[in-house]
Amino acid sequence: TAPSYLTVWPTGGALPLASSLNYGPGMTVANMVNSALNQAGQIDIYNKAGSAHVLVDVVGYFIPAAGARFAAVAPARLVDSRAGVGTSSQPWQSGESRNLSVTGLRGVPAGATAVVLNVTAVSPSQRGYLSVVPGGSAYGTSTLNFAAGQTVPNLVVTGVDANGEISLLNSAGNTDVIVDIVGWFG
């Protein structure tokens, strides 16, 4: 019933400053979310504003084990260009790419080989896409597509280069970008 977002995190933890799904009134929007669970196997879901029907489908899971390769973390904000968090406080310009260090931050160790992120384009000036790749890699396909004025998130799994970085490209127009970490692979 209102522009809003949902946040998913392990039950019992503090509400993180991260969105898992953004939407406007009357929209039906889907997004894949990876979340850690509490000891009882539970998650919390927070709706910022208005009311919304929420459907949750489990499509897979990771079993913690010695030498486990995936580690979920409580969502944490790495980049918010609106506020200058992790980057300049300027929107990405058309054709602009920026590198982002991800290892050594928010529970991602130096040996991580890939990260799981929720990447959001906020109020783009025109239709375009964001592409997320390991730092310094060639850009290929879109990671998330958006129309002018939309706020669109997408769950992203990308490799990390030897320097612990990823690269993000904005294809067209100007857009603010938010990046939240939700897990990593060793």
- Strand order of the main beta sheet, please? 4-11-6-9
- Quote the distance from N terminus to C terminus: 41 Å
Structure classification: mainly beta
- Indicate the radius of gyration in whole angstroms: 16 Å
Low-confidence stretches: none
Percentage of residues in DSSP E strands: 35-45%
- What is the succession of H and E elements? EEEEEEEEEEE
Percent of residues in helices comes to: under 10%
Shape: globular
Oligomer: single chain
The averaged pLDDT comes out at: 89
Major β-sheet profile = 4 strands, antiparallel
- Strand runs, count: 11
Put simply, the count of helices is 0
What is the secondary structure topology, with strand pairs?
Blueprint lengths: L3 E7 L10 E3 L19 E5 L22 E11 L16 E5 L12 E9 L5 E7 L9 E3 L4 E9 L5 E6 L5 E10 L1
Antiparallel strand pairs: 1-2, 1-3, 4-11, 5-10, 6-9, 6-11, 7-8, 7-10
Task: Report what the structure shows.
The chain is mostly beta strands. It has no helices and eleven strands. It has strands spanning 4-10, 21-23, 43-47, 70-80, 97-101, 114-122, 128-134, 144-146, 151-159, 165-170, 176-185. Strands 4-11-6-9 form a four-stranded antiparallel sheet, with no helix packed on it. The protein has a four-stranded antiparallel sheet with strand order 5-10-7-8, with no helix packed on it. Strands 2-1-3 form a three-stranded antiparallel sheet, with no helix packed on it. The mean pLDDT is 89.
Quick synopsis:
Helix content is 0%, strand content 40%. With 186 residues, the chain is mainly β.
